[in-house]
Amino acid sequence: MQLALSLAARGPLRDPNPRVGCVLLAPPSPGGGPRRILGRGFHRGAGTPHAEAAALDDARSAGAEVRGATAVVTLEPCSHTGRTPSCADALLGAGVAEVVYSVADPNPVAAGGAARLRTRGVHALGGLRVAEGEALLRVWLTGVIERRPFVTLKLASTLDGRIAAADGSSRWITSEAARLHAHQRRSEACAILVGTGTQRSDDPTLSVRGPAAGHAPQPLRVVMGLRDVAADAAVRADPELFVHLRTHDPVTALEELRLLGVRHVIVEGGPTISAAFLRAGLVDEIDAYVAPILLGDGASSVSSLDIGRLRDASRWATESVRPLGVDTLIHLVRDTRANAEYDRAVAAEGVAA
Question: Which residue positions does the secretion signal occupy (predicted)?
Fold first, then answer.
């Protein structure tokens, strides 16, 4: 499964289809021992063979017999025939005896592959390394389950949470290494979003620059807010990439982006727009670039979240911490259990007191 996950990660980030990997194992030998890999494959994008078909093709091209094999797949094989045949049918036609998958397919159009395999006598088992599988698929899963783009909130601040000094100066709080990483992250997203306030004060291009610029097409440059965007604004340099969302509502903004085919958006706006997405509960992960600087005064990275008590704080789980030059990148994901754990800890202290 680890090999299948690593294969899946080679798939395109911006594709509408999920990133899936598949490994075919030979049937168990009578004497036991390690099972030979017959074929491997991953989905290379919409319209190309799915991972299971790619792995079958790989095995057959090497002259391997796949009847009785085990297919190890990162996502439940689909039961839908679209531009490509059903993966469940492809595995049945090949005579595969067993299928082990990580994540169950939540897409009502394609789900049911495991059940179809079982009705035809194939042993189908799901739930292997689910957390890793879901992490790989989280952009796609958000689109299918919540019917909206996946949202990354980018914060770049000092140690005390400032994004500008008292005089308004903000370039540059973070180092070149942090900025290069932020451009790499931009290259992975479909759209970069700021508010009209940030657009007017900073006149950003919202483009991918540096070494990451050649890795993928440029993302959409999105400005959200009611105020007009000047005709000579930097975000208008490529008119076909510019989008103005005349709304203050994050839900409306994400629905408009979904209709444009956006699957992953990075919110890079100022404190007002960051707080709006956080208050709406629409942030899926946070990239917090922290510089070893103290300002004391100046603009905060996030404006009011209307939180009056510590127990109601917006809490996040730290997924990774990475040095970037003199700065530190803290990558955080949603943590639905954090507030309950805080309440238990406070209660325990109260009993002990």
Answer: none
